[in-house]
Amino acid sequence: MDYTKTVRAAAAQFSPVLHSRDGTTEKVLEAIAQAAQSGVQLIVFPETFIPYYPYFSFVQPPVLMGKAHLQLYEQAVEVPSPVTDALSRAARSYQMVVVVGINEREGGSLYNTQLLFDADGTLLLKRRKITPTYHERMVWGQGDGSGLTVLETAVGRVGTLACWEHYNPLARFTLMAQHEQIHCGQFPGSMVGQIFADQMEVTMRHHALESGCFVVNATGWLTAEQKQQITPDEKLQKVLSGGCYSVIISPEGVPLCEPITSGEGLAIADLDFSLITKRKRMMDSVGHYARPDLLQLKHTTQQWSVLAAAPPPPLAEPPTPQPEAEMTETYE
């Protein structure tokens, strides 16, 4: 692993085009082009940004959200599809590593999915959030451990988690144990208020310190008009405010740029990989500071499916030869 290079990264905070997969995808492509003008080599977009995060599920009771849920089904992204093809072409065209959250549709289910494209356009990772949070369980299915993996990319070893997965210490440790150099965090943003942003800051800075890696964290943004689209209730519109914290953090837990807490924009910073060694020299939580003789983590990497191939039946064994009975001659 190269700890001498410098990488320019961006956390993208934008509003989606509500109810439009194509509209939001176009905003992603425009943001990639904009970032390329600043020499960005890695860009991270918010949680389930394409087509949009299901904010409706946070402010509507399940019995009333059927129409909005079905609309999300209609606009969700299949993998592969024209959307993933367009993202792949953009990554390849600008030689940029791209991490984007989507609502993935497979058959009759939706999933909170993170896609990681390498700088040559290859889709390296399609992982699903392992456990949707609270209201999200009415919208998405569960992921599995196969996506908890750190991958070698053009910018280094990259790992990803979505939102409150960062409150699962074993999920984070799984990535840490694979020596991630850059961690990509994704949150919905525009929810819960300032307390959400405050908690997010603590969580992401702590992961940077504990993992000894850079953190690129992206959150979404809703305009006043979009909040009105989601709910006419002014009290609930206030619930869809705040909670934005798009930022880049060093392995020493220090923000490397001014966090974006409102509006749209790109948080850009240079990642000096020598800071990883500087931090881990003091405390490598999966190396010299670990005690595997006392504490170990079991990681199930199997990809689960409702259709599992049954093992072939065992071959019939040939009968075991029996010893011949002794012949006894009788004489009269």
TrEMBL record:
This is Nit6803 family nitrilase. It comes from Almyronema epifaneia S1. InterPro entries: C-N_Hydrolase (IPR003010), C-N_Hydrolase_sf (IPR036526), Nitrilase (IPR023919), Nitrilases_CHs (IPR044149). Belongs to the carbon-nitrogen hydrolase superfamily. Nitrilase family. Coiled coil: none annotated. Residues 7-273 form the CN hydrolase domain. Residues 310-322 have a biased composition (Pro residues). Residues 309-332 are annotated as: Disordered. SUPFAM superfamilies: Carbon-nitrogen hydrolase.
